[in-house]
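Worked example 3. Consider a protein that binds zinc ion.
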Amino acid sequence: MDKILTLGIETSCDETAAAVLRGGRELLSNVISTQIPLHQKFGGVVPEIASRKHIVNIMPVIDEAINKAGVELREINQIAVTFGPGLAGALLVGLSAAKSLAYALKIPLIAVNHLEGHIFANFLSAPELEPPFLSLVVSGGHTALIKMTDYNSFELLGQSRDDAAGEAFDKIARVMGLPYPGGPEIDKLAKSGNADAIDFPHPKVTGYDFSFSGLKSAVLNYLNTAQMKDEPINNADVAASFQKTVVDTLAEKTLAAAEEFKLDKIVLAGGVAANSSLEKTLREACNLRGFKFFYPSKILCTDNAAMIACRGYYQSLEKTFADSTLNAVPNLGL
Ligand code: KG4
Ligand code: ZN
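Given these inputs, the predicted complex is written out as C-alpha cells:
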C-alpha cells in the first residue's frame, strides 16, 4: 500500500494546486500557482476571475506536479480533489479535471473536504504525528476546534459564530490600506508595534465557540474615530493589539479544550497558522504545560494540494471513494 501514488488537486479559492504523494506521507511534488497578484487590485478574491484563471492553469499545474514528482501520469493510482468548502466556480474547475483524469486513467476518485485537508498538512510536516489530538483550524473562512480520535473521525468541539479569524485579519488590513491578503501584512506590521498599546475587547463567548465580529467592529470604530478626530493612528500598534487579542482568544480556548478532553497533542492548521505570534504563543504555552505542539511548514499552512492528497490517501484506506456524479459543495462543513 505504501507505494500508492495519489495525485491531489486543489482549486477552492485563489490557488491552483496539484501534488503527488507516495504512500501517506512522502511528498514527491507540491506545485502551487497563486492568483494573489491578480486579485490584489480588487482588495479580495473576485470569484469569476478566480474560476477563469483556474481553467487556464489547471492542466499546466497538474503536468508540472507529475514531472516534478518524476513519475508518469499512467503510474498514478488515485486522484484526491477538494469538493468543498470554497467558491463554487473555482471548485468546479478542479473537480472537472479530477473526474476527467480519473475516468480516462480508470482510477479511483476521492472527494476531500478542504478543512480536513488543512489538518492533514501536519502529517506531511511531522511524519511521526498520529491521532488522537486536538486541532485548531484557522483559515480565511473558518475557525474551529476539532478533536481527532483517528484518521477518519472528526469531532467538532466549537467554531466561529460569525467572522473567521482570517476574515477579521483581512478586513482590518483592508481598512488600514494594506494589500490583500491582509493576514501576513498585519503579522509583519505587528512586529514593530506595541501589543499592549490599545485595549480591544476580548470576545466573550462561552464554551469552545468563537466570535470575532465584535472585535473587528471595535478595531474599525477605533480607526474611524481617530480619522474623524484627525488624531494620529499608529498602525503598528493597532495591528499588534488586534493580533494579540485574536491570538490570546485562540490560545486560551485551545488549551482549555486540550485539558478538558485530555489530549496532549495540539495541532495548528489553516492559513492563519502561518501567523508568527499565534505559533509562538501556542508553542510556549504547550511547552509550559507539557503538551506536544505541531504546526505545518509555511508553504503547507496556506492552500495547497499536498494536504488534499494526504487526506485523500487516508480516505482511500477506508475505501471511501467518489464517482463521476461528485459535485461541488461550496458550504461544506466539517
Ligand atoms: O487556509 P487559507 O490559505 O485559505 C482558506 O481556506 O481560507 O487561509 C487564508 C487566510 C487569509 O485570511 C490570510 O490573511 C490568512 O490566512 N493568513 C494569515 C497569515 N498568513 C495567511 N493570517 C495571519 N497571519 C499570517 N501570517
Ligand atoms: Zn484553506
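Take a moment to read the result before moving on. The mean pLDDT is 96. Residues 235-260 form the longest helix (26 residues).
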